[in-house]
Amino acid sequence: MQAYDEGHAVNVGGPKRRTLLAALLMRPNQIVTDDELIDRIWSRPPNRARAQLQVHVCELRSRIGKAAIVRCAPGYTVVTSPGEVDRDRFALLASRARADRDAGRLEEAVTKLRGALSLWSGPALGGVEASLSAIAGPALEELRAGAVEELYDVELLLGRSGEIVAELRAILAEFPHRERLAGQLMLALHRADRTAEALEVYTELRVRLTDELGIEPGEPIRRLQQQVLRGENLQGGGHGFVKPVESVPRAEPPSSVRESPSTEPVASVGHVQPAGKELPAELPHGVRGFVDRRAELELLDKAAHGAHADSGQGPEIWVATGQPGVGKTALALHWAHSASDRFPDGQLYIDLRGFSARNVPLEPAEALHALLRSLGGDLPAPNRDIDELARIYRSRLAGRRICLILDNAATAEQVRPLLPGHTGGTVLVTSRRRLTGLTARDGARPIRLGCLAPDRAVELLTQFLGADAVAAEPVATADLARLCGYLPLALRLAATAAGTRPDIAALVAELRTVTPLTKLSADEDEGVVAASFAWSYQRLPLDQARLFRILGLIPGATFSARTVAAAADCPQAKAAAGLRALLDDNLVEQCRAGRYRLHTLLRLYAAERAEAEETARERTAVLLRLVDHFHELATAANRFVTRGCRATPGTGPTVFAGREAALEWLRAELANVTAVVTRAAQCGYHARAWRTAEAMVPFLRLGGHDGEWRSISLIGLDAALSCGDKRGAAAMHLSLGLAYLEAGPLSTAAHHLTLACRVGAAAGRSDVVVEALTALAAVHQCQGGLGAAVRAARRALGREEGAGALRVSPGPSHSRMGEQGRAHAHLARADTLNNASATDDPSGLVLLELAWIRRCMGDTEGAVRDYHDALRHLRLLSTRSARPRALAGSSQAHADEGRYGRAAAHAESAPDLARGADVPWVGSAARNAPAHAGHGMGRVDDAVESHREVWAAGSDAAMHRHRVEAPVGIPAAGPVEAVDALASGEWAYAVASRNGYPVLAGRAAEQLADAHHSLGNLGKARTWRAAALTAYESCGHGPGAVRVRRVALQAPLQRAGK
Fold it and tell me: Which parts of the sequence are annotated with region: Disordered (predicted)?
């Protein structure tokens, strides 16, 4: 991605601005919406993406001209003239070249094609964000590859075989899987009497395709290889690689060539149908409304393409499995109809009735008799045994390329006698069971079908309801698809229920008031959803049927064998075996290793069966076993979170191997714990609910789960208030206060923390009061109430000091007030106590604050040392936001010392960790760090861009120092207009002064002094330098004060020199 102005390169800025310009240029003179641009610039859009987009547009306009990018609601347009965009020039030249070739002007065609290709100077959309290049790049590369093939097509027509060999080799290295290019190279080499090299090209291509893609070369290039082997004269056209490959007619070589073991087979093993016999064509009609399944269809297509010769390994066998109603038969029939031309000897279809409410499963002998009748010829006697029937059947199929659909199979034993014995055909089995025996013994390949993606489900509904109806009610249509669980059968039945004049919103409302399984039915049709589920359920053994019912009682989306064992009150090994059996029957899905889930409608069905077949006492017992199970495991897991890897002795069974195992369990079960707590509270088990909610708080303080944290805490608070438990209410107010402190708003955090102090004191929960006061001190700091922050910290200190380890100290508040000496003294004492108690959490937090104060005092060497020690402690810290803060601070301290390489190394992983923390101001700190390092290493544009993003994305609710650093860093990172520097500097100075950040206030004042000096306002420049000196001296920041005095001394000398 490059821009030029009258032949001179224009620096449009960093990757995001290049992406913005490229996204607009992909659709010149058309409106590209804000949402589209945001999606293309950021793979994960920031909170204030629109504001940042406006910043990028302004910067881009300043580089390429304001008139070039026009605001046209709801987006922007880039205005271009014909020929200004290389892609358009390329397309025009390629089009004219084709016209020249068709008119016989071959030299002119070559000239234009080479001119078009010369416009390329690298990969398509190089230098832009992957969120755009991954979408638009492949199409542009395809245009280029097509033009390359057209060029060498014409060069070969002109007889320039020897001249283009080197070029073709180079371009084939760029596009190693393009068979047409390989064929053109083979043709050029063969014409140049280099036949051995031509055959090597084919061999290398075949190895690449089979090793990397698992497919064989296509028929045209296989035919070309045979022609080269036979030494045919391949001058002129008509052989497939001077014309497009697709235009070459299929040639059937003699059988002697096909069967020769020394050559690649070039055609199918054909079967000559006896005269007067009709080919079997037994496929039922396809299902209306078939959508999606592109990946599965491509798999089948590739396999059928390579299954044309008999290698003795048997046919291609596929087993399509999935839950009832997922569309297994629809997939089989759709593909078989679309691929009918690949099976010249016909298609066979048989319903094996494996899961049918009206018929028993078809015996293999019955199925063989039916298939033999379809194949024609004399029928065997009825008394033949199954093995003899299978031998006759395989003999009848020998040499035929037939597609065989074995629908609705029950077991592998039912299918195995029906498998052909030769290669050349394709067998597609459908079953609700996974039929792993066919995979293990017969080499079958599984196709596991899941439900449709939401947009594909809407597409299916559109085919039934009509585009106008869906366009009129898009939200209701999406809700309807979701209520159907994106299950194809349920979607078709819902569309049928809507009728020919659909009121989609009314149907959605009805489905929300009745069980969808009841509504989604069709009279006297065994294909209804509930009936499909019932037939699978009724065939389960008793213990598996009970387990299936228990699954319907487990709240939450996924579950593990451990959870199921607790719910079912059985050993974990037995639960795991039961889940595997249900998985084989496709009644549960395995979403990842060790975790399972029920489809939405299957969950409803399981719950219905539990309601009908389990007693109320047993259903209650399941819930209580679950909530007690989650409370016990959450308590055990969080001991690792709060105590590092040192589990507290004598506190229960050892259920986790270590901290990582405990964290993995907590992450996996968070949603399920929330669901169980909700159900327990709804059913009146309030004490169990709030205690289980409280057990999750240490994990939630790691960050990254703000929404879930607030949700489970609110449920716990409501439960505690409902049963009048003040201890529980205090704990839940504290949890909510901490959650809002992390993500805002701070006023809500202060409200809950104040209540936590008051209720906790009344209930005798000193631990809650200390935590709440500590958090209140942080809230007051962010809000600028530094005196209140000191008072809250001192109250907490008085309660916690006797514990030996200090998580809290008034030091940070003294620092914000400019009292760096007092701040340092408090924090150093806290650090000494924490070292004596050998606890990781408080030590890491205190060292973070100590390092910041040392930076404020100009002690960069001490700051680097403290950040290093903090990182060592924070490897086990129970808040995910602390580690990215430490990395960012360490990076900036190294940058202060001029060690930009180390600064960049520390800054590299900070943004990724900050995204995991999901705390806005931590993200600001993490993005500022690489900008500071980049400035020192000369990456000015990227540094400015990062600082602007931080400033634009900030929230006025909490003026953390990290956001104030961003506008201060903008002029430091490169030349900025003086007016802009004044605006950002005045804002930064006001916020830094108000919130107690004297170092940043000094840097902002220096920025303002420099801006006024450049504008000639020397008096204002002196005033702001004096303000900077005052700020630096107030906090003991020696380097800043020295710098200001030095500049003040140089100013009169500069005036005298002029």
Answer: 235-284, 803-825, 883-912
